[in-house]
Amino acid sequence: MTEGTTQYEQSHGQQKRKQKAPTSPFENLRLVVLQFIEQHPHGDSDNLLATLPKRWSLYPPMILLPPSAFSSPEWKTYLSSLLEHQRLELFAAIAKTLKVGYLATNAPIQSNTIRSPRLHPLHGDFGKLIKGCPTPSDFEAAFWATSTQHGIKQTWAPMYTMFSRGNITEKARVLSFPDVKDQEVADLYVGIGYFAFSYVKAGAKRVWGWDLNAWSVEGLRKGAKIIAYNEDNGRAASRLGAMGVKVKHVNLGLLPSSRDSWGIATRILDDSGGWLHVHGNCKDAEIGCWAKEVFSRFTELFGSGWLVRVTDQFRVKEYAPGVGHWVLDVECNRPTSVK
């Protein structure tokens, strides 16, 4: 009997463990919000729970919620009914259950020169918002997040720069380029190193970068061995020329268009030829027309003595319905070097 009882208890215990499977992060979020609403009732709790975000982006130690999170009319009414310390208590509880120290809602980037992000901090000390040129002490006091893709760790300040998960396919493609090893590379819109670090990992001799956003350059500096200039890339040709540097690959990663820097790219490319990687937003149905336009423009910029070919077109991700973030690989060589 004792043995039978023991077997039953073991079997029953296994069943109980199966029944207590770990809850999902969303279920944990829903539970903690429900508990808070029950303690601070106001309005229809079902409507509040129905509009909770089901997906978010984790960038340790921060979670970025989508713009729609807590923005419905019901949520706006509910949050306005709470005292400030109660709102802080709610978001602190959410951050705790999701196991992060920082919580914010995201929004589309601003259409300015440096493509600034828009964040609404909900929990955690994101630091004082700095306007104008930051100082070393500003960099030190700011909150920095990290993200790792393809084994490459990138650092960025969410209040001032952004991280795009969707670039992961293009990063992988750069890693597969066959002729990067021991070559000079220029990234005229280097940002926090989205593609620059892939060139480094692919074995580039050096990567030279330009970006107007000081916060991007600081994040880049924290990450790896890239020579970056916090200035207009219009100085790239004179900078590299003074050091006798010519590059084999030029990354032109600005969206919606890098057209303003196409002439610069032709002047810093190695005299024997190389590659231009032209990013841009283009309607999917018009990619052929854009490729022809890019070919014609670079043929004109290089002039006689050069052979220009658009060898590949690659859709990185969707930018808007029917509009893609595309990359054109443009091979540029002098005819004598073409096999």
Report on this structure.
The strands form 3 sheets. Strands 9-8-7-10-11-13-12 form a 7-stranded mixed sheet, sandwiched between helices. A 4-stranded mixed sheet has the order 1-2-3-4. Strands 5-6 form a two-stranded antiparallel sheet. The radius of gyration is 26 Å and the shape is elongated. It folds into 2 domains: 23-108 and 118-123; 168-337, Vaccinia Virus protein VP39 (Rossmann fold), CATH 3.40.50.150. Helix 2 runs antiparallel to helix 5 (84-97) and helix 10 runs parallel beside helix 11. It is of the alpha/beta class and 339 residues long. The N and C termini lie far apart (86 Å). It is built from 12 helices and 13 strands.
Write the layout of secondary structure elements.
Elements: H1 2-19, H2 25-39, H3 45-50, E1 57-59, E2 62-65, H4 73-81, H5 84-97, E3 102-107, E4 118-123, H6 136-141, E5 145-149, E6 152-156, H7 168-175, E7 184-187, H8 196-201, E8 206-210, H9 214-223, E9 227-229, H10 236-242, E10 249-252, H11 262-268, E11 273-283, H12 287-302, E12 307-320, E13 323-333
Parallel strand pairs: 2-3, 7-8, 7-10, 8-9, 10-11
Antiparallel strand pairs: 1-2, 3-4, 5-6, 11-13, 12-13
